[in-house]
Amino acid sequence: MTWTIIAPTLLAAAGAVCALAFDAFGMRRSASGAAVAGAVAAGAVPLALLPSSVSVAWVIPVLEAAVALITAVTLVGGWRRSTTSSSGPMSAALGGLVLSASLLVMITHDMVLLLVGLEAMGLAAYGLTALGGTAEAREATMKYVIQGAVATGLLIIGVSVLFVASGGSGGYAQVVTATGASPFPRSAIALAWALLACVLAFKCGAFPFHWWAPDVYEHSSPPAAALLASVPKIAVVVATAQLFVQRGLSSTMLTFATPVALIAALAAGSIVFGNLAALRQRSMRRMLAYSGIAQVGYALVGVVSRAPVAAMLCITLYGLAAAGAFLSVEAVGDGDPSWDGRIDTLAGLGSRRPRLAAAIAALMLSMTGIPLLAGFVGKLAVFSAAVDTGWTWLAVLGVVGSVVSFGYYGRVLGAAYLTGDGIAGSKVRSGAAEAATLLTAIAVVIAGMAPLFVGGLAALSLFAR
Amino acid sequence: MTILLVLVAVPLAGAVVAWVGERMHEGSARWVALATTTVQGALTVMAMSTATVAGPAGSGGNGLVALDGLSGPLVSLTALLGIVCVLASWSTRRGPGAYFGLLLWLQAAVTAVFLAANILALYVAWEAVLIPMWFLIGVWGHEGRRHAAMKFFVYTFAGSALMLVGILVALRNGASASLGASAFAVASTAQPAVFWLLLAGLAVKIPVWPLHTWLPDAHVEAPTAGSIMLAGILLKMGGYGFIRVALPLAPEAATAAGPLLATLGVIGIVYGAVMALAQTDLKRLIAYSSVSHMGFVVLALAVGTPAALTAAVLVMVAHGVTSALLFLLAGALYDRTRTLEVARLGGLQRTIPAWGTAFLFGCLASLGLPGLAGFPGELLTFLEGFEAYGWWMVAVAVGVVLAGVYNLRAVRRVAHGPEVPAWKGLADLDWRERLAVGLLALPIVALGVWPSLVTSAASPVVAALVARMGR
């Protein structure tokens, strides 16, 4: 029974280890293949073990599968890199490790395991960033590592305080109950919770702990960025939702501002800052990085509204589209190696590579939150939860942010379709990155339309009630 | 019920067939589009004849779609303009597969807006309109298309996003998701928030002055079919949503907002007319006249009596066919002359007599000549407004006079006067353009002499609605 819970984590790690082993014999394709196989297996196990009737117990296994399959798709999207460069198998293995640690972060209900998972995730992410290879990538890694070290310190302090205050139990629920009755000063406990919230905010790149994110996403290779911008973010938001949406949590915080207020501030700040900063970007990847800050903000609105499932749904559906968006950067670069990565120079993509452009359009519109695409489902879930719990102003801020986001997501569409008409470029062979992008776009469309067909609009109405 | 779902499904399927068909056989997309819109038209007639036209939408049921006397006229208008749009785009050369596919997608989405019986279905359909329209303006539009497409999208998306929050707040405060539910109004304390949030979306669409600034750009830069859909249908979504959603959800807040809305409506009427007077571009002139005509709709909605709401529906349908005719003619002219500068045109009545006659007819309908579509609705609005707000309606009369001035001046400058040598050999309207003009002229006359075509359908529904609101 118990081992099946940890099986996805182990399978992903096994894939990574096999990748390293194959690499030792110079078998690059097998190495990448092993990492992909590990990720797919990690996704298959929770799906195979789903309880027979649909219930809340489905949420985490389904999200595990989603995260594992997103990882597999990003690894496939990075196939060209991981099979041609000498560091390729290493990045595939690190991808598997990111997944393994992320799965641990998602399933655990224990502070100590959370700490272990977050640190493992961080280490793999540092490595993956460094493999970007350029001087900028190394600089970004340094920034990431140093800020990560501070975060680790704070995390350890926070966890230790709660651990001691609760009398040595690390389980989320036990910590909440035990610290409520603990003789420790309330302010110390509240501070520990606040530290935890800040560290988690750092790990998912929320404002104002986001400074590493744009550099990391811009200078790691696009497939690595696709992985880093989706899987760890999903995992951390899932953990945050599980940790902070617990009965009795607010009441243990009588003497200090509740962590919910803190998370509300983080969410609002992320939405405002992420959107405004993304508007100013000219580079596609940097735009995606800043917009990702805003997207984490939307998901945190779900945490604030005590709607953990909504928050998890929101970040996962975003992560899916974000992975596709970063992979599309790789796909565009595959076809046109001279592309400078700027949004404006995507001009004419709609006529040059109609399929890829259509996929990018679907991904951008999904992240904007247009109905019938995945992103809308997630945003609807969190915003309706916000309205339901009296956080209407956060919902308004969120939808205004979504409108602003069309300013930059729409710029990509505008470049691809509205400029550079009639430039029929040479035929480009479509590679793995394009295939992976298309796959995510199809998933985004299916996930967005599913509520229409599965149980009709009743599913949407459920969220609205 | 099933036939209503088919009404939405047919254009969607047609969109796919048109897109795929064009790849397999060049030139097939427009025929697919024509067949699809014709079938949709026939199905609409069937649905209208079988539907229980009285009673609020979906009363008694929790369905996804419903047809009643309020949505019926607008669904019919959509079906008619769909055919006209295909005819107007017959010679589209650039990517016809994608073009007609998007046009049919737009058709399906708009139909779904009018048929939706569930508030979230309505919102989803409402937003689904945005993307095809963005592409139609942005890719197939004129010189300033990129800017116009972005402006259109951001304005309407900003409005509708706030509308979504309004819907969520309404659902939170006891509204049912079903648009036909009897206990629909939300708690009094929540009504102002719901009303103003919903109005943000509706007012941008209608458009209510001063939120109209996206309209001239979008109408002018859009291809002909895009302008027809924008002016003919998309603006009506705002008025329809007001009657269908905002009024029943927040009747008290709507009553409180009446005087302000009426003021904005009257400003819109006069402002649109004055701006139309100042335009030198024919299409821009028609665009501003839309602002003026939709001002009547806003005024009627503000008054909010059953008769005024019926008048609002009547004005919407009348403006739908009239503006479609004018944009169709402007587009046909642009195809030939590549300019719509009024100063460079002249004497077209002699050069292209069929076009000139149709243009005169369209302008007469637009200025509200008795016996044509524009007259009864605007008159009824005026009378109801007079009842409610008294002599303030003099301002509306000024707007009506100005409508006469700008319309007749356009006819005089464009169709009369000395012939311009450059346009000597211009070809007159061809068979498909004449067919499209005929399709629009017919309802313009019919509504003028027999407005109860629309009012008999709409008035029982709005009467029931107003009665339910307890006004």
Describe the structure.
With 465 residues, chain A is an all-alpha fold. Chain A is built from 20 helices and no strands. In chain A, helix 3 (59-77) packs antiparallel against helix 19 (432-453) and helix 16 packs across helix 19. Chain B is mainly alpha-helical and 471 residues long. Chain B has one domain. The radius of gyration of chain B is 21 Å and the shape is globular. The model of chain B is unreliable at 53-62 (pLDDT under 50). Chains A and B meet through helix 17, helix 18 and helix 20 of A and helix 5, helix 6 and helix 7 of B.
Span of the ends, CA to CA of chain B: 31 Å
Task: Identify low-pLDDT runs of chain A.
Answer: 460-465
Q: Name the structural class of chain A.
A: mainly alpha
Strand content of chain A: under 5%
* Large-scale geometry of chain A: globular
How many strands appear in the DSSP assignment of chain A? 0
Order of helices and strands of chain A: HHHHHHHHHHHHHHHHHHHH
Number of helices of chain B: 19
Biggest beta sheet summary of chain A:
none
Rg over alpha carbons of chain A: 21 Å
Order of helices and strands of chain B: HHHHHHHHHHHHHHHHHHH
Mean of the pLDDT scores of chain B? Answer: 88
Termini distance of chain A?
Answer: 36 Å
Task: Indicate the mean pLDDT of chain A.
Answer: 87
Question: What's this model, at a glance?
Answer:
Chain A is mainly alpha-helical and 465 residues long. In chain A, 77% of the residues lie in helices and 0% in strands.
